[in-house]
# Entry
Amino acid sequence: MSEPKIIYLGPACEAATGDGRTWAEDNPWPDCECGHRPVQYVLGETFDRMKAERDALQLRLNAADQRIDELRELLRDVHKSCKGEKCYTNEEFWVEAAIT
# Structure
């Protein structure tokens, strides 16, 4: 995912100063003794784009997880069909690892 452009609104305790709360492109405020932190904002379109990116990645992850489950099931079927015989030599370890 790409990094969103963030702008900051000064901490709430800054409201009592003569200038009030200020906006900044970086976070110039040190940690405040009162515990208030600046508020982070992103553009709505940036939020929507990042949400769409996240959703697309989640779909890909779900598809990959589904494929893994299908392949594990196929490996179980192959393993069952061996009936104690060695179906694989080099791959036997991987078959065992995948079905357990």
